[in-house]
Amino acid sequence: MEKQFDSAQDAEVSAEVSREELRSVMTALEPDQLISTKDHHHCPRRQLTRTEMVLFWALRIYLVFMVGVVVYQIWTGVR
Amino acid sequence: MREPKTASQPREVTVTRSVALNNQLLDGRPASGADVVITHEDIDRAHDREQVSATRARRGFRPRLRLFWLLIGPGILVMLGENDGPSMLSYAATGARFGVGFFVPFIVLTFAMACVVQEMTVRLGAATHRGHAELIFDRFGPFWGWFSMIDLMIGNFLTLVTEFIAIRAGLGFFGVRPAVAVFGALLVLSVALMTHRYWTWERIILGAAVFNLVFVPVALLTHPHWGAVGRALVTWKPLPGGLTQETVLILLADIGATVTPWMLFFQQSAIADKGLTTRDIRFGRMDTALGAVLATVAALATILATTPLFTHHMAAANFEAAEFAQALQPFVGHWGAALFALGMFEAGMVAAITISTSSAYAFGEVARRPHSLNLPFRQGRSFYLVLLIEAVAAAGLVLIPGIPLVYIVLLVNVIAVLAMPPALLFLYMLVNDREIMGSLVSPRWANVLALGVVVILIGAGLLFGVSVIAPKALAIFGG
Description:
The complex is a heterodimer. Chain A is mainly alpha-helical. Chain A has two domains: 8-40, no CATH class; 47-79. Chain A has helices spanning 8-13, 19-28, 35-40, 50-78. Chain B starts with 22 loop residues before the first helix and ends in a 10-residue tail after the last helix. Chain B has a single domain (80-477), classed as Amino acid/polyamine transporter I. Chain B is mainly α. The chains are: A mainly alpha, B mainly alpha. At the A-B interface, helix 1, helix 2, helix 3 and helix 4 of A face helix 2, helix 7, helix 17 and helix 19 of B.
């Protein structure tokens, strides 16, 4: 059965998901593959250790510094 | 995955009435509440997964082959997608400047590095069913999440600009005007999206990506010295001119041609969109490895194809993509040159599609908007608009006359290498996170390889820094 899923409004008045589709979704997808599950359940935030924080900042500083080097190279190249 | 604690705002799009996903409903009894909403995206994905399950249940060689066919895609797309305009131009510049030597085994090494990195995204995507940007925001918070998004978006946009440069240059060989080439590419990109089906989109782009191998016949037309290729693979020599500033720039450009942040975001999101599960990880690995092999072949073929320019001492510093093709004409004939130009167009076209898709996935994951190639336009409006707006903006920039193309292209790859270590740290921590990965956390050997990749990338970045700030200091490294 071809369904039109044009908008949320349409959806409210459209027929329910067919039994075949429902069965298909239930059997073929893992529970946390469902969009609504993913929308409502998110991975909890983790606490960064001091070492991890240092690593994050070190790599961020490295990136900023190296981008500066690239800008310098472009500047010298233009000159 | 462990039971989560947080809840986000609901998605804007609800495509069907809320339906309780429980046995009551399947038994024909009325649902007691709006527990779960089934979306169009779920139904499409479920249909794809049903085919996988049905094929997996059958025994024999043909069903296994069919299963492989059903499950491949993201790995090949990401690897051949990364053989994009700037990458092919980097390889072409490598062949023209250095010929067959150090860079032949070096390219093989970079693709091995890409394999190590991308395998982690396969596991992460299959275990969590979530995109890379979403996981970074959830696990590390918005502060670090935004850093990672800014890196990705800037890198993606710059790379997209270079894809349209390649498209313009490749079609320029055939006399197509820049504006026509660029608008034609935008049209192709839009048509591919109109399928509104991940599976169909993936197959179309896979079909186009295979044309990356047109560099192979071009290489064969130059009659490569296979003995020299074999010697180079074993000895990593010669490196004409030694370690100079130019060598370091090409070195970084070639690394940036194989490992870049957008690949992490794209493959993980594509695996979630395709619906791969932990049972499919083995096929995901095979998909990635096959993609790496195909991409390595295309990359090496490009180096071999432009080696005659090195052998005949033709300066390649100012060659743009189409000019490479014209310069090669005396060695490979008109058809060979035409194939080379066509290859440049294809490389830019496929990458323009995959890279803009990776941006759209990341945006949707972070903004909590629907993000899937299974979505009809009205439901995935923000997803498709981000994708198209980014592509149109990049295409528009390319039409500005007088842009130093080759220089921009090489620098884009360099920036990609520099942005990679922070991106890899996120990936490394996520893939070793037992709370979300369970038993699929990286084994020790995989961690050693991943850290090896990080060390090589940081080392190459620092070498580039030295070559720019204090070129004479390269002598310390044998330059």
